[in-house]
Amino acid sequence: MCTYLFQKEICLDIGVENLARDIAHPTSALLDSGANRIFIDQVWAEKIRLPLVKLDASIPVYNTDSTLNAGGWKINLILGWTWLFKHNPEIDWQTGVVTLSRCPQECDDLGKPSHI
Description:
Helices cover 16% and strands 26% of the residues. The chain is built from three helices and six strands, in the order E-E-E-H-E-H-E-E-H.
């Protein structure tokens, strides 16, 4: 999926789990240290039946050129700063290799892979 974007991004092939249904849905996630949070495409989330919670106020999402993002994403998931801070992956930006060697204990408890 990420081949539609720049050549210099790092995407992870992951499975997004719906814990209520015990099903993992494969997708690509873009690592984006410039994104403040984790973002998921609403249409895709609804398609895989992830439980969604309506917010009291919407959170505007802006593109790098400061324009408001209108949707139509080419990827389903963006892993931003909050994810990067929590999992603290080793990233080789030249090769695109991401190693999850410093994840919190709960990742080990879930049986996460150590290398992506």
